[in-house]
Amino acid sequence: MKRTEREYAKAKKRGDLLQKEKEAGRSEMIKVTGARDKLDKLSRNMAEENKKLRVSSSILGLLGASYQVRKDWSADCWNRTSAIPWKRVSGR
């Protein structure tokens, strides 16, 4: 009888130990899954922000180029009109 009780006690300890290891593994898996989800979310947010920055910088680049073209065109027109001898038209 005592032998059976000892074997039962050993088996129970082993079962408890295995259950604790299983729970520890499960909690570790939950932590890792949560961290992975957070990283995925941050990665998506960073990708969206990078896309917005690329679009806005390309728009600003186009606006800057457009401004430079207008500035050059305006200066060119001014140079052409300043070379024209203007005549005064007398009023009535």
Q: Helices, strands, pairings?
A:
Layout: H1 2-82
Q: What's this, in brief?
A:
This protein is mainly α and 92 residues long.
How would you describe what is shown here?
By secondary structure, the protein is an all-alpha fold. It contains one helix and no strands. The longest helix has 81 residues, at 2-82. The mean pLDDT is 82.
User: What is the number of strand segments?
Assistant: 0
Rg over CA atoms:
40 Å
Biggest sheet overview: none
Oligomer: single chain
Termini distance? 135 Å
Residue-averaged pLDDT, rounded?
A: 82
Uncertain runs are none
Order of H and E elements = H
Q: Proportion of β residues? A: under 5%
Specify the structural class: mainly alpha
Q: What percentage of residues falls in helices of 4 or more residues?
A: over 70%
